[in-house]
Specification:
It catalyses: alpha,alpha-trehalose + H2O = alpha-D-glucose + beta-D-glucose. Its EC number is 3.2.1.28. The protein is of the alpha+beta class. The chain has a 15-stranded antiparallel beta sheet that branches. It has a three-stranded antiparallel beta sheet with strand order 24-25-26. It is built from twelve helices and 26 strands. About 30% of the residues lie in helices and about 20% in strands. Strand 10 and strand 11 form a beta hairpin. It folds into two domains: about 180 residues, Glycoside hydrolase, family 65, N-terminal domain (Beta-galactosidase, Chain A, domain 5, Distorted Sandwich), CATH 2.70.98.40; about 375 residues, Glycosyltransferase. The radius of gyration is 25 Å and the shape is globular.
Length: about 600
């Protein structure tokens, strides 16, 4: 049976990411990029679809894991009566090559170990041709892909799998290095496993030391920021929503999507979290990615792009994979790329506004893009769309989409007022005010004393919790308190917040999913703003307990099963964690020391 989602940790090189199970198996890895076809796809199928497992020959009595402080270097300790070993995992990127480094370090006694390496390409469909090179490395080739395995232990083949059995004694270290390169490139040099480990540890710790993380939740915030950085591509600046595809939002369900792309919304919120942590370089890289990705006609703006700004993300199903614990279909690509989601204009222009406030040097091209998007939104804001949750049902006038259209106009107006940028101030102010009045008139249900999911509807939506966070209305406005109370009544499940009631929604899919973790953090943010700090702290600390043993979160949580669900690790969840920790910390400071929250500037 497949491991639980929370039984995985991740390693990465800021171009791709591997999921490493508590059993020592790498069950998911796409090479060379996050969105490339997987060479280890056991996560969505079986071991026959590719994996790399290093573990004791007999089940360990105790397994513990940790990251080296401030890094993405993973240490998994296996203990048994006969001995103990630590498996150290990390990744690096060289020119034209990706290295996965695994070192087995003897800690106590003597322990018999086994390695099983099933090398596959194209999501486990292609079995490569394997041969031995003169320098002792094992080579596997299929089409454009090549893997090289370098280790000192004897290897043998067994049912299309490379196997090694060896013993490790205290004080001994056994290295393994698996290198990916294009098959048509010259053979790369053999890296030193210990040197790679030292370099990756030092680089990550140097980056972490630059951050502004302190206080009682510093460890959780730091781990989230490291995870967010690991989801940002080092060369393009694009930020993926998660490292996986098709991990289900409901166990054995069909709400299974490919998240290995750059959602404008998720990327901008990730950017805000990194800037809040003191990482301005990532903000500048993201802005350059954005300018490249959206270049062209403004009416062609997409809600998501590929890592380098690719626009065609055609969705298809991989019928040869059984799915995570049977959840089908397995999808690659994402048809939501063609949707209209008006809220992304607000998230984008809010992020650009905060980049200015953070001191990112002015850029004429960036302001030109903002002006173009603002003027385009003026023509679009009163149209129905698919909304933040990417419903695959009919378009509607989603309240949150209109709120974020207001945010877009508001941030553009502030660009002129606060930074002296050039633009039609009077026109933009007038449109901003018109949107505000429209939302308050059509998006609020006076009988329910709450904002609603869409104009004319009665259903609620957790995205409404963002209304005070973006500064659309102050928290003391009675409509905010009424909306929070309604969401508490109707969308809470075992104390966690659902996005909306899927049993009543017209979203084109069967009902059922977990509680959306970001929404639960948003409720805690509202508690902070409403002065309900004890409740905010209690909810936040309960959410922290949902992280796995190495501090990672998926997209959702299933309270009935007591398990994480959805793609992993999820940028949206870690962004919300960072934001709520900051809001709580600021609320507990003296008033004169506080700064504004996410977007509602002072």
């Amino acid at each position: 049976m497949a491991l639980r989602i929370e039984d995985y940790a991740v390693i990465g090189n800021r171009e791709t990411m591997a999921l490493v199970g508590r059993d020592g198996s790498i069950d998911w890895l796409c090479l060379p990029r996050f969105d490339s076809p997987a060479c280890f796809a056991a996560l969505l199928g079986t071991a026959e679809n590719g994996r790399w497992r290093i573990a004791p020959c007999h089940p360990a009595a105790r397994v513990t894991r940790r990251y080296r402080p401030g890094t993405l270097v993973l240490e998994t300790r296996f203990e048994s009566p006969d001995g103990a070993v630590t498996l150290v995992d990390c990744m690096q990127r060289r020119d034209g090559a990706t290295d996965i480094v695994r070192l087995v370090r003897g800690e106590r006694g003597r322990l018999a170990m086994r390695m099983d390496l099933a090398m596959r390409f194209d999501y486990g469909r292609d079995i490569p041709w394997v041969s031995r090179l003169e320098d002792g490395r094992l080579r596997a080739i299929a089409g454009p892909d090549r893997l090289l395995l370098d280790t000192s232990v004897p290897l043998h083949g067994q049912r299309m799998t490379t196997v090694a059995e060896f013993e490790v004694v205290a004080g001994e270290t056994v290295p393994f290095v698996l290198t990916w390169t294009p098959s048509f490139h010259p053979l790369p040099a053999r890296p030193s496993a210990t040197a790679v480990l030292a370099e990756e540890t030092a680089e990550w710790q140097a980056w972490s030391a630059r951050g502004r993380t302190e206080g009682e939740w510093a460890e959780a915030v730091s781990r989230s920021l490291i995870t967010l950085r690991a989801l940002a591509h080092r060369e393009t600046g694009g930020i993926v929503a998660a490292a996986t595809t098709s991990l289900p939002e409901q166990l054995r369900g069909m709400r299974n999507w490919d998240y290995r792309y750059c959602w404008l919304r998720d990327a901008t919120l990730t950017l805000l979290a990194l800037m809040g942590g003191g990482y301005v370089e990532e903000a500048a890289a993201w802005r350059e990615w954005l300018l490249r990705a959206v270049a062209g006609s403004p009416d062609k703006l997409q809600i998501m792009y590929g890592l380098a700004g690719e626009r065609r993300l055609d969705e298809r199903e991989l019928t040869f994979l059984s799915g995570y614990q049977g959840a089908q279909p397995v999808r690659i690509g994402n048809a939501a790329a063609g949707q209209l989601q008006l809220d992304v204009y607000g998230e984008l222009l809010d992020a650009m506004h905060h980049a200015r406030r953070a001191g990112i040097p002015p850029n004429d091209d960036a302001w030109g893009l903002e002006r173009t998007l603002t003027n385009r939104l003026i023509d679009l804001w009163d149209q129905p769309d698919e909304g933040i949750w990417e419903v695959r049902g009919p378009r509607r006038h989603f309240t949150y989409s209109k709120v974020m259209a207001w945010v877009a106009l508001d941030r553009s107006v502030r660009g002129i007022e606060e930074f002296g940028m050039k633009g039609p101030l009077a026109q933009w102010r007038a449109v901003r005010d018109r949107i505000h009045a429209d939302v308050c008139r059509r998006g609020f249900d006076t009988a329910r004393n709450s904002f609603v999911q869409s104009y004319g509807a009665t259903q609620l939506d957790a995205s409404l919790l963002l209304i005070p966070l973006v500064g659309f209305l102050p928290p003391e406005d009675p409509r905010i308190g009424g909306t929070v109370a309604a969401i508490e009544r109707e969308l809470l499940q075992d104390g966690f917040v659902r996005r909306y009631d899927t049993s009543k929604a017209q979203d084109g899919l069967p009902p059922g999913e977990g509680a959306f973790l970001a929404c639960s953090f948003w409720l805690a943010d509202n508690y902070v703003m409403l002065g309900r700090r004890d409740e905010a702290r209690a909810l936040f600390e309960r959410l922290l307990t949902l992280r796995n043993d190495v501090g990672l979160l998926a997209e959702e949580y299933d309270p009935k099963a007591g398990r994480q669900v959805g793609n992993f690790p999820q940028a949206f969840s870690h962004v919300a964690l960072v934001s709520t920790a900051g809001n709580l910390a600021r609320a507990e400071k003296p008033a004169e020391q506080r700064s504004g929250h996410r977007a509602a500037d002072d």
